[in-house]
Each structure stands twice: as C-alpha cells, then as structure tokens.
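Tokenised fold entry reproduced for absentees:

. . .
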Amino acid sequence: MAPFFSWFYWLMNLNATVVFLGISYIQHSGAWTLVLLIPIMSTLMALITLHMMYCNLIYQPEKCCSLLATFGVFVNALKTCCLQYFHLGRDVTDSLDHAKEKNGGHYSELLVEDTKPFFALLPLFIFQLIYRVCIMQIPSAYYLQTMNSNLNLNGFLLPIAVMNAISILPLLVLAPFMEYFSTCLFPSKRDGPFLSACIIAGNLSAALSVMVAGFSEIHRKHFPPLEQPLLGQVLPVSSMPCFHLVLQYVLLGVAETLVNPALSIIAHRFVPKTIRETSMNFLTLFNGFGCFTGALLVELIYLISEGNWFPNTLNKGNLESFFFLLASLTLLNVLGFWSVSQRYCNLNHFNAQNISGSNLEETLLLHEKSLKFYGSTQEISSSIDLWETAL
C-alpha cells in the first residue's frame, strides 16, 4: 500500500507539471481562447475515460461505514453520556462506548469499535491545517513575491506559473528514490515511526520555506525598482531576479514529498477496513479546511495590521512579518504533532488486531472453529474407546 500512495502522488504532480507548463505557454503566447478550450476538453476526455473504464474500476464494492454513521456514533455517545451522567451514572472505559446498545445507545458494538480508531486520527488531521496554510502560500504570497520580482531572463519574460512547476520538481525527482530506499533497501523500516518522522521533517521543511521567504522579501526590497510589463500593464517591480526565490519553492516541494504519502498511509492503515473510506474522505476534507484556514488567517492579519503585514503593494508593507509569524506557528504545530505522534507508531500491531475484519467477528469465528474441532475430537475419542472395549 505504501508504494501505491507514493506513485499516486507522483503521477498527480506529473500531471500538475504539465498543467502549469501549459498555463505558462498561455501566459507567454497570449492565446486566451485556450483558457476555456483546454479545461472543457480535458473534462470531457476524463468523463469519457471514466465511463469506458467503469467496470474495471469497481470490481467488488465493499461494505463500509458511512460518514453519517461515524458522526452518528459520536453524537449518540455524547447524548447518552450526558443522560447517564445526570440520571444513570454508568461508567465506561471509553466515551464512545456510550453509543453501544448495551450501554443505552443506538449502535452495535461492532460499529462503535470500528469507529474508535477513526477518532484517534483527528489530532493527525488537525495538526496538518497549519502545514496546509504554508503550502497555500504558493498561489498567494509567493505569487505576489514572484510578480513583484524581475521575470526578465535575457529578454525573455518568464511566466509566473514556471515557479509553480519548480515547486513540483523535488517531488518528481525525490519520490522514486525515496520509494526505492524505503521499499528495497529498508523494507522493515516502513512503519509508524518512519512515517511520523517523514511528517515532522516535511513540516519543518515547510516552516523553513516560509522563513526563507521572509528573508527573501527583505532581500528583495534592497534592489532598485524597475518597470516590467505584466498582463498588459507596466508595473513597478524590484530588480531582484525571480530565481532568488527558487529555494523557498523547492523546500515546499520537499515538504510535499515527505508529508502527503506518509499522511495517506497512516490514514489508510491505522483504521479498520470498514472505516478506511471515511478516513480518506476526512483527509481530503481537512486539506480543504487548511485552505480556508489560510484565507481566514490572511484576512485576520490584514485587518489587525491594517494592511501592513499583507499589503496590496509589497514595497509599502512588511510581508516578511507575515512569513515569520507563519513560520513560528508551523514550528509550534510541529511540537504539537510530535507530542501525539507516539500513538501512530505501531501500525502493524494495530492492523493485526483490527483491520483484517472486526475483532468481534474474528473472535466468534475462532470460537466456532474451536468448538467444531473440540466436538470432532470428542467423537473420535469416543469411537476409539468403543473400539478398545470391543477388543
């Protein structure tokens, strides 16, 4: 499963590289009719391909716990817990056990036990919000920095989308090597501690990228201004070459290489089979929450600093202060994730107990086999006794 997520993100970013290079061509050539034509044709081809391959994509649907059932377990446990606290006073080992039918809830013991590991993943998802805010600086603050830098390369005006493609190159280069070393050379090390270390290292790389962006912004202001044509307008920008910003883009690419596959593997392997679909959906949902968190953070800082820390005109503000604040929040986020990362270390032991079917179901099957075996041995032993008596 680990190679699947690594190559899945590798192919996704390969497609993104092609897209950004196509956007760069459109920006350079001015063929704006392609802006509508390419997405429409791409969507149409994707729909046709999915329709043709539908039978091969869905081989045997599995019965999974729905998202509504997961929320239902939590709400019912909270409701029953409050009622029992004020009226019944029944104690249980886990708060979610209140949702079980035997404790006054409305859900089976099997469903509640399968839901427990999912709620243990919530801290993992929450601590990725700040990291996602750092990643979202590429189309926001990093874009402003690049737009206000010198894009002229020997008379050729570089499109801004080229810098987005640069941020993807580390993943395209490093992902195959990391997969080779972790799978072929050190297959026994692809466990929970290794994955948690990858997530921590990726968050540190994101914090370092934002910090480098802050110093780059200070460095950019020391260059004399010049006029540069951009999107049909002539804008006053810094004469600092845009290649001085490459390091911060590369560091974010390294962060994506380390975090995304490891996070997906933990979200997939940590939970039972019946809850995996919900877990992966929540991972995507929290990635979207990270984007909204970044937008709210920018709006809040803009209002508090009165436009100084996220200025409309970079030369009239202090964007570096925003970068340093975000880097500090990311470092605190790393400390918070490190404090809870120990619970995600022993994935293999957890899977041996939970993922290959439910614990209760497997236990019943084992008991049934044991009883059958015990009954068969009793019949054999009684036959032997009768035979010996006859002799």
In short: The radius of gyration is 28 Å. The chain has three domains: 2-46+127-352, 67-115, 355-385.
